[in-house]
Every structure is written in structure tokens, then in C-alpha cells.
Input
Amino acid sequence: MLELRPNCECCDRDLPPASPEARICTFEHTFCADCAELRFDETCPDCGGGLVVRPIRPEVQLHRFPASLRRVVKAHRPATVQTPRREPERPTGWV
Output
């Protein structure tokens, strides 16, 4: 059964059990959508597996099978900044 970890392991953003923003890999490493897409290109930085939307446990099941309260935070690489590409400079006088 999935733990449903309460936070992003990278930025520590809260991810409640019903959050559509939670992403997990097959080892349940948990990230928010922003970190998964912008920092890790939807690939888990810990195991190399794909990051997918975490399933939402029905609210009626949360009482019997509660989400985890254990917060995991790890140091991950900073976000990759996309710099716009520019044309190479041409020497003066070229057409």
C-alpha cells in the first residue's frame, strides 16, 4: 500500500493525500509537480525511474489506511534554468 508521503522531498511543499500535484516513482520517492517537471524532467533523481501522478486514496479509506506523517527532505540539484538560445555572432562585414 502506498505511504502517501505528506511533502515534496525536494522543496518540502505540502502534498495532502488528495493533492493532484503529487508525483511518485515506483519506490515512492515523492515530489511536487513543479519539481518533477522543472527540476527533474519527470525522472526520479534518486532511482532514475519515471515520475507519475500519485493516485488519490478515497477519503472514506483514509481513516482505516491513513497517509504517512513522515516527512522526507533530501538535497537535490537546483532547478535548471533554461537560457534562451541566441544566434552566434558573425564577424563585421558578413551578410
